[in-house]
Specification:
The protein is built from 13 helices and 6 strands. By secondary structure, the chain is mainly alpha-helical. The protein folds into 2 domains: 223 residues, Rossmann fold, CATH 3.40.50.620; 93 residues, Tyrosyl-Transfer RNA Synthetase (Orthogonal Bundle), CATH 1.10.240. The strands form 2 sheets. Strands 1-6-5 form a 3-stranded parallel sheet. It has a 3-stranded parallel sheet with strand order 2-3-4. Helix 4 crosses helix 7, helix 9 packs antiparallel against helix 12 and helix 10 packs across helix 12. Adenosine-5'-tetraphosphate binds next to strand 2 and helix 1.
Amino acid sequence: MTDSTIFSRGFAGEKLACVFSGIQPSGGLHLGNYLGAVRHWVSLQDCSERRFYCLVDCHAITVSQSSLRDQTLSMAAALLACGIDAESSVLFVQSSNPHHTELGWILSCVARMGWLQRMTQFKEKAGKDREQASVGLYVYPVLMAADILLYGTTHVPVGDDQKQHLELTRDIAQRFNHGCGKEIFSVPTPFIVASGARVMSLRDGSVKMSKSGSSAMGRLDLTDGLDEIALKVRKAKTDSTVLPSEEAGLEGRLEAKNLVGIYAALREVEVSEALRDVGGMSFSKFKDVLVDVLGEVMVPKGEEMRRLRADEGYLMEVLKKGGEHARALSEGRMERVRRAMEFLEVD
Ligand code: AQP
């Protein structure tokens, strides 16, 4: 990846023009989503002109969902509780703006099979039984490209698991622009977070913490109270050596590296700095320290999320306004795309 910007603590440069990012309401918000994405979305509110934060329900249905409506409302409550300001950022549900799926189809005729075949996330998510995976799961990155390109996005903050999809978005935008000889789409810059970019399961340091994949004990959910956090952290897999004082000492120790990475990301310091505090500690001591930091950062957000989730009328109002706003802002670009495709205008 050549053009990505590494986004760490805050952003000191000029204001970014337009930021887009999405999260699937495929379960509850977990620590990986928070550290790898949402906390950066919150900081970007101070250093960007326009922001679109999208609950990507059309992506979530690429695998079966048991209670999508409830999950979507809960995810909206979680984002608001983490500090997304629906007055200054556009917070909306993907399916409420039909331009996403309309553009997704058009772009699926621009993307090449060979490009999609390289996507590693499909391979990971489809697993061994690829024949049974939905077609939607396969073309998911094209819909993601549509999400991003609809709004003239210049920057896309994501965890490093999404880098490849952003490269694909850039390829699609360039091919479309070149094909019609016009700059219809801005070519976005991936904005890869420097810390918390990949939080791993507490039970297995080689597997990403995820809403649907990792076991409940491997995942810290925003809804977890202090007791649940303490239980999960104390049961987290570790090794038998004390923590090192230098980063090199974490090499090959996946679980230790993950826990120290979580601690550093929560404290908003580099891993080397974190190790100056916790190097030499036994895991049982370090886990107590980690539980305290998790409690400070996550528990108040979980309480606020529960309060907001109980007010469905308010959440619906926020999402309705966001959806209308998003649709109005994407209409102009969608019209230019239809014209570029030479679709007959029948009304
Ligand atoms: N473990 C993680 N560490 C760091 N960042 C993460 N993200 C997800 N998991 C981690 C980032 O969160 C944002 C939203 O993710 P998503 O919901 O769109 O999709 P995902 O990456 O597939 O998330 P999950 O939690 O693993 O969901 P399921 O289990 O439903 O597939 C993204 O920016 C992602 O990088």
